[in-house]
Amino acid sequence: MKKALITGVTGQDGSYLAEFLLEKGYEVHGVIRRSSSYNQERLEDIMSAEEAEAIQNNENFHLHYGDVTDALNVTRLIGEIKPDEIYNLAAQSHVRVSFDMPGYTLDVDAKGTLNILEAVRILGLTEKTRVYQASTSELFGKVQEVPQSETTPFYPRSPYGVAKIYGFWITKNYRESYNMFAVNGILFNHESERRGETFVTRKITLAAARIAQQKQDKLYLGNLDSLRDWGYAKDYVECMWLILQHDKPEDFVIATGEMHSVREFVELAFKHVDIEIEWQGEGVEEKGINKATGEVIVEVDPKFFRPAEVEQLLGNPEKSKTLLNWNPTKTSFEDLVKVMVESDTEKVGKELFNRKMFD
Question: Where in the sequence numbering do the catalytic residues fall?
Answer without folding.
Answer: 136, 138, 160
